[in-house]
Design goal:
Layout: E1 22-23, E2 31-34, E3 58-61, E4 68-72, E5 77-81, E6 94-96, E7 120-126, E8 129-134, E9 139-144, E10 156-158, E11 182-188, E12 191-196, E13 201-205, E14 218-220, E15 244-250, E16 253-258, E17 263-267, E18 280-282, E19 307-313, E20 316-321, E21 326-331, E22 343-345, E23 369-375, E24 378-383, E25 388-393
Parallel strand pairs: 1-22
Antiparallel strand pairs: 2-25, 3-4, 4-5, 5-6, 7-8, 8-9, 9-10, 11-12, 12-13, 13-14, 15-16, 16-17, 17-18, 19-20, 20-21, 21-22, 23-24, 24-25
Length: about 400
């Protein structure tokens, strides 16, 4: 006789959230890329190929019909599908970062260059501009024209003086033209935002740079470009950050996933001054609070546990609540301090947590989702812990 043992801790009734979630997505993922096994929980060795992914942390869809860009983080490469995949396990058409689909290794086992990557984590696309956060080369690569062939060289580099350099903050102090473990990148309304995670700040270029090494125009999280202290060197409040990872602009509002403080910072108007304080936060009851799930083991509709990504999904803002292995979403019109989410994906209720709901991976389960993005009615999820990227249909 076989007995199934649940790995989930016993739930305490006092933690009942009292809120019924609305579905964020329609059913399970319509397409799964990467881990396309029989979903039976068996682990297979992940060898680099045109169909495999290893810990992907970012993905972006240029248009509903494609192309699709995926940061295959563990294999140190960017995979490109010319058209949006319609079937599970569709092979990528192009790659950047390795000499072929079967190779792996940081910077293709060499030094940095215009076609190499070292832990790529964030990707954003707008029109013909593609930006990739090449985190461990401490730089952002930009293509002014979407790649049409494998290993098409980037046009410019930010954070370094040239393509061959790769030291954090250029080997010196932080400045307006340096980066340190930059994990996130966003193109919005003609501006470029970079989550400069290792420097505990977010940088903004008012226009997409056309020259390598261009300095940023604005810094948030610090009061100047040379300081890199966690929480701006003060007690946790409304201006400093710890490990910012993702940025989104929604109806003139700015949202930053401040993963280390277990919150999302929200500015009601786009900030124009260095170090400008945010208006309120999601995930915490006050600016001074930082505990995951607001100090409880189980989450609620209003709490967060290491949120690594935030994205606009139609008239909603979706948050990858990474350590709770779920995605929560709010109506943009209903954002306020410690607001409870209305929409949910990956878990059955707002009180549930656990990788893949404490079971084997399913088409509607998640394990440490690191990156989310949306285009039209399609949401793209980098389901990092399951070594896959999922395309979900967003509910009306």
């Amino acid at each position: 006789m076989t007995m199934r043992v649940s790995l989930a801790p016993a739930r305490r009734q006092s933690l009942f959230d009292g809120k019924t979630p609305a579905p964020l997505t329609v059913g399970g993922a319509r397409v799964i890329l990467g881990n396309v096994s029989s979903l039976d929980g068996l682990v297979s060795p992940i060898k680099p190929s045109a169909i495999t992914l290893f810990g992907p942390r970012g993905a972006a869809l240029a248009a509903e019909g494609g192309p699709l860009f995926v940061c295959d983080t563990g294999h140190h490469r960017l995979l490109i599908w010319s058209r949006t995949p319609a079937h599970d396990g569709t092979a990528a058409d192009m790659h950047i970062g390795q000499p072929n689909f079967e190779s792996e290794g940081r910077n293709a086992k060499g030094g940095p260059g215009s076609t190499t990557l070292n832990v790529p984590t964030g990707v954003s696309v707008s029109g013909e501009v593609l930006a990739v956060a090449d985190a461990w080369n401490h730089r952002v690569l930009i293509w002014h024209g979407l790649p049409t062939r494998s290993n098409q060289p980037a046009d410019i580099v930010l954070g370094q003086r040239d393509f061959e350099s790769g030291l954090a903050n250029r080997g010196a102090a932080a400045a307006a033209d340096t980066l340190n473990w930059c994990y996130g990148v966003t193109i919005a309304d003609g501006a470029l935002w970079v989550a400069d995670t290792g420097n505990r700040r977010v940088l903004k270029w008012n226009r997409i740079p056309t020259e390598s090494g261009a300095p940023a125009d604005l810094v948030l999280g610090e009061t100047d470009f040379v300081t890199r202290d966690g929480n701006a060197g003060r007690a946790v409040a409304d201006a400093g950050m710890t490990w910012p990872h993702s940025v989104v602009v929604a109806d003139r509002r700015l949202l930053i996933a401040d993963a280390g403080n277990n919150r999302v910072m929200v500015w009601d108007e786009l900030p124009e001054a260095n170090g400008a304080p945010c208006s309120f936060v999601l995930g915490q009851k006050s600016f001074a609070s930082i505990d995951h799930n607001a100090g409880s083991y189980y989450p609620t509709s209003a709490t967060l546990n290491m949120p690594y990504s935030v994205a606009r999904v139609g008239n909603r803002v979706a948050i990858a609540d990474t350590a709770n292995s779920r995605i929560v979403a709010h109506d943009i019109s209903d954002l306020h301090m410690f607001a409870g989410a209305r929409y949910l994906a990956g878990q059955a209720t707002f009180c549930d947590k656990g990788d893949n709901r404490w079971r084997f991976p399913q088409r509607d389960s998640l394990c440490w989702p690191y990156g989310i993005a949306a285009c039209g009615s399609t949401m793209v999820v980098a389901d990092s812990g399951n070594n896959r990227v999922m395309l979900w249909d967003v509910s009306p």
